[in-house]
Amino acid sequence: MTTLEDKILGETDHCYCSSSESDGEDSAEGETKGATASATKQPSDVSPPDPYKWEGSSTNTGPKGVVNDWQRFKQLEVERRAEQEKERIALISKLSLTCKSVLDEEKDTNDLDEMLNDEFLLEYQKKRMEEMMSQLNSLPKFGKVVDLKDTQEFLDAVDKENKSVLIVVHIYEKNAPGCNAMNGCLTVLSQEYTQVKFCRLVASVAGVSKHFKISGIPALLLYKGGALVGNFVRMSEELGTDFFAEDVESFLLEHGMLPDKTCVPPIIRSSQQDDEDSDLSLE
Locate the Phosducin domain: which residues (predicted)? Predict the structure, then answer.
């Protein structure tokens, strides 16, 4: 196999002219080689004739030649039409694999609705969701704000609690703007979210810096499984100095910190409603 260097050297040899005594012979050989090379390279530059192109001439100008040319033209036309038909059929088959009719989509939707409305599947979903809800209901309940007296109680409240329990710690100072409002809001939320552990710790007891006491409180630290999952400082800039429990609840819901009660599946809400109705009937 020839390399790029061989090609370059070969072309150089073809165009090389010697300055020795046999200048005439070498030049004649060079011209002969150059002519041979150009003769061999010329066919590669010529593109093959198009079989479908009509040149407007015939090898035989008589009646037979005209008939032969006409027959050849019709044959080429038939072949071209057959090739176009094959391409059209291939395109149709390709599009038919990627497109669905409206009837097919409606049929798929109806099949999906029938599958979702199947009684056995609904019963299985109901039992599975009830198992998950029972696991959630097995968590401890608090219903109040826990006062942490020192850093050790703070560490115990975070590390020794159930790993599935969300812990909300409020770092505050009694006379700091917004801290009293936050304490009141957490008292209300602790009664609504009984499975969330709400705590509060005085900033001076927590050992935070003076700068944090001035510009960092009220602050909410959220833990779960011993890990910090939320850290919100300077809450007064977000909520102001006078706010309500609904404001704090909306803020925590927007950040995905509190469980959203509106996300309870309808199948669970219906079962809970049935249980309440049965309890009322017994009473």
Answer: 53-111, 117-279
